[in-house]
Write a structure and sequence with these properties.
The protein is an alpha+beta fold. The chain has 16 helices and 23 strands. The strands form 7 sheets. Strands 17-18-16-15-21-22-23 form a 7-stranded mixed β-sheet. Helix 9 crosses helix 14 (443-456) and helix 12 (378-404) packs across helix 13. It is globular and about 65 Å long.
Length: 503
């Protein structure tokens, strides 16, 4: 067995490959961005072939940096941007259309029709999810309904469907030469097509959406002692390495943060922001706007479930301020800009660019900046931009406390924005709980590596992963309760102003 484990992290804006040692420490890493395609307002696409090329390059790049060969790896795990879908020809490997990204709102009319026919929660008892443009099922329906030849090809068995990890694992394990067509339980739970209890595709929902069962991948555990396939000797790895671990990116961060005990929670600050609470082996239905999802599953064991709060725009708001407004030339500058003032000056920014996700689920919302006076300046706006992520997280925590019946006592954090001290301190202040960053903050990649490593016995069990976790920094709340309450009241008023914008 090799001395290392590799992990592919196919994210919304870039793809990475990381190599980890037995202590869960990063040995090598390489990363490459891919194009963001916006054909119309609210539409977001990626080129799946470009993403695959990037993955090949970063796999080779990371190995070269560490002076390693593919044969030095015991296994490879995959983690991915969830809900993003692609439909492709299994004989040529050619996609029928660009990948439709999780943020894309082109399925708004499909979702409106579904809601009209049974309410926003019509599939929630089975899937744990509300009807929303966020999830994969309506995106698959859109491709089959709108792209010439796609539906017929699926019905004839020529075309197959998958989220991004399905596409990558198919290519990794042989592609047109018989690649594995699989999806793990965590990604399947984001499609709005899987029964949370049986972990199988729900035939009734497939019929309602008009999605042929034969085009969908086989649902498998996240950590699979039966490898789905092996990398090809003539592929990017240059060796036969088992591919046997897969988790959606937020579930991967949960595993990477070693949140294995019921009641443990983590928040990932990336393009969006995602807070997951481990609820154990029983799915908990949300009554306050959260979603019920799979956390992970080891082959032969009961699945572990989560409550999740999903925020569409977090780091993406800082990118928008950089790229669309030109207020900063690099994302780290936002902290320096915001630090020039003591507070937001009454300014709030609600980044409802594609509507609002949890706990509101309002596709009619759009972004607003409110509370502007002649006193407000770019420093206040920068601060409002950072505070938006912290306030959206507070919305989620409030809902989570109500659903779980237990108040959150601490929050483990990861993702790119956790290096922003001002944001992390403000997060601790508005939540009134300690916010804790781990030493290895690339927890998404780490979680994918853990999944693959557990599957092949590279790590004997969850206890070893727990022992690997170590704290890097903790922010303690310092804000007075009156200030906290007043700030949040202002935020809720700002959210209210963002609603009912789209008819």
């Amino acid at each position: 067995m090799g001395e290392y484990v590799g992990a592919i992290d196919q994210g919304t804006t870039s793809s990475r490959f990381m190599v980890f040692d037995r202590k869960g420490l990063i040995v090598a890493s390489d990363q490459k961005e891919h194009e963001q395609i916006f054909p119309r307002p609210g539409w977001v696409e990626h080129d799946p072939l470009e993403i695959w090329r990037c993955i090949g390059e970063v796999m080779q790049g990371a190995l070269a940096k560490a002076g390693l060969r593919g044969a030095d790896l015991a296994a490879i795990g995959v983690t991915n941007q969830r809900e993003t879908i692609v439909v492709w020809d299994k004989y040529t490997g050619k996609p029928f259309h660009n990948a439709i990204v999780w943020q894309c709102t082109r399925t708004h009319e499909i979702c409106k029709d579904l809601i009209a026919g049974g309410g926003q929660d019509r599939f929630r008892p089975v899937t744990g999810l509300p009807v929303a443009t966020y999830f994969s099922g309506p995106k698959i329906k859109w491709v089959l309904d709108n792209i010439p030849g796609a539906r017929r090809a699926v019905e004839q068995g020529r075309a197959i469907i998958g989220t991004m990890e399905t596409w990558i694992i198919w290519l990794l394990t042989g592609g047109v030469r018989g690649g594995a067509h699989i999806t793990d339980v965590t990604n399947a739970s984001r499609t709005m097509l899987m029964d949370l209890k049986t972990l199988q595709w729900d035939q009734e929902i497939l019929q309602t959406l008009g999605i042929p069962r034969q085009g969908l991948p086989r649902i498998v555990p996240s950590m699979d002692t039966e490898p789905w396939g092996f990398t090809a000797v003539d592929g990017p790895m240059g060796a036969r390495v088992p591919v046997c671990g897969s988790l959606g990116d937020q579930q991967a961060a949960l595993v990477g943060q070693a949140c294995f005990a019921t009641g443990e929670a983590k928040n990932t600050y990336g393009t969006g922001c995602f807070l997951l609470l481990n609820t154990g082996t029983t799915p908990v239905a949300s009554r306050h706007g959260l979603i019920t999802t799979l956390g992970y599953q080891m082959r032969g064991q009961e699945p572990v479930y989560c409550l999740e709060g999903s925020i569409a725009v977090a780091g993406a708001l800082v990118q928008w301020v950089r790229d669309n407004l030109g207020l900063v030339s690099s994302t780290p500058e936002i902290e320096d800009l915001a630090a020039q003032v003591e507070d937001n000056g009454g300014v709030y920014c609600v980044p409802a660019f594609q509507g609002l996700f949890a706990p509101y689920w309002r596709p009619d919302a759009r972004g607003v900046i409110v509370g502007l006076t002649r006193y407000a300046n770019k420093h206040h706006l920068a601060r409002a931009v950072l505070e938006a992520t912290a306030y959206q997280t507070k919305d989620i925590v409030e809902a989570m406390n109500k659903d779980s019946g237990v108040d959150l006592t601490r929050l483990k954090v990861d993702g790119g924005m956790v290096h922003n001290d001002l944001l992390m301190q403000f997060q601790a202040d508005v939540l009134d709980v300690p916010v804790i960053r781990p030493k290895v903050h690339e927890t998404t990649c780490l979680g994918a590596a853990y999944a693959a490593g557990l599957a092949v016995g590279f790590w004997p069990g969850f206890d070893e992963l727990q022992a690997n976790w170590a704290e890097s920094k903790t922010w303690l709340p310092t804000m007075q309760e009156a200030e906290r309450a007043a700030g949040y009241k202002g935020w809720l008023k700002a959210v209210d102003r963002s609603l009912n914008w789209i008819d």
